[in-house]
Automatic annotation (TrEMBL):
It is an enzyme of class 6 (ligase). The keyword ATP-binding applies. It comes from Candidatus Komeilibacteria bacterium RIFCSPLOWO2_01_FULL_45_10. This is Aspartyl/glutamyl-tRNA(Asn/Gln) amidotransferase subunit B. Belongs to the GatB/GatE family. GatB subfamily. The gene is gatB.
Amino acid sequence: MNLEPIIGLEIHIQLKTKSKMFCSCSNLGENEPPNTTVCPICLGHPGTLPVVNEEAVKMGVKLALALNCQINRQSIFARKNYFYPDLPKGYQISQYESPLALGGHLTIVKGDFEQRINLERLHLEEDAAKNFHFKDKVLVDFNRSGTPLAEIVSKPDFRTPQDARNFLQELRLLARYLKVSDADMEKGHLRCDANISLRPAGEEKLYPKTEIKNLNSFKAVERALTYEISRQSRLWEEGTAPRTQATRGWDENEQKTVEQRDKEESADYRYFPDPDLPPLIFTEEAVSDIQSALPELPQAKRLRFVKEYGATLADVHTLVEDEAVADYFEKAISEGRSWLEAENDALGTSEEIWALNKQKLTKLIAGWLLSELFKLMNAEGIGIGDIKITPENFAEFITLVYQRKVNSSAAQIILKQMFATGADPSHIMEEEDLTQLDDAATLEEAVAKVIQANPEQVADYQKGKTPLLKFFIGLAMKELKGKANPEKLGEIFRDKLR
């Protein structure tokens, strides 16, 4: 039987405010001793009144607009009623019939094409406390209770576990660019429940879904969905496809989902408007102000890097993954352009010089940044913001390579010294005597010595063993102390040995 997975996601993003959603307690409780960032409001004491965190609302609107959602002009908080040890009031303040925003979409990249994932809604709510389970007891830390959350509910637009993982990674990147959340799954800043059902390919009908919980990493999301597809496929083949909604948890140790409890319907929560909180009213002007202040978003930045700089799709995806890296890249590009224009001003206008060189220069900057510089950073365990090489010096270094003032071996030496000291690349080149030799007579003299000293290899080369060319170039490079251009040496050898 040909079955099609139908997957939707429910994502909670912890908003990066200074205080909690409805009280003035610190929102940094995860770094403090248990039950120290609490007050009567977030502990649910009778008679206390919540006050909405304005900054959390602004962050929610910012996230909703970046996700192309429609902001509701009137948004209402509701009480979601259920009993659990981590819920001190016996209800959670959330939103139901009138959420912060409706609709929206986020685009993910699948190979060479894009896929649009549509959204149902985005609403604000408070987080519950955190339970710690021991053999015979459960301890509760209320530091997290009342933390502001944005819940995003997708439509069931995913057809593969990989698509779901890609969506979450793109959403994490978006939240970080907006600076509304660190969106770190390992720390619980981004949490996800996945809903999945199967149906015969070609059918439009939706079958009862299974919700998967305890997904605390991107790998866990992908593996849990893959497992659940396999499990439900077996049930379909056996004629016992799921007939009711259910909830299962992901067991990381066993790498499988396990039954938890029946899935609740919304009616089970007995939602009703919270009488202690007035509606949120948004004017057109207020929404427009937030919209106009949005930064350039990841996908827009990727497209601009390709169009403006001629960067490859593979490079831009890595560059944009970290906003600081993307900024460093752009500054290096700008400085590199200035260097080129200053040294070639007699060859045309600045636009003409840039048009002629931008693709090669961009490729060099991206290549050295993402390979060699990343390699040095990873070895030290530091990020782009911690390195001693300024974008200006990195651009100067790339210009030396681009203009062939140093060869690749010398460039490696220079970059390592720059990384260690932050020194100027031109000074290192001069002090270490690494300037590439371009004197034709000197190069030809070295080539002649190699040819004279290796008559047998020369004879073999002339009989057709052309791979020996690398052997000759290596000897010549040794003769010239590694300061020659290997390509130029190759040209001279080929000319002399014809």
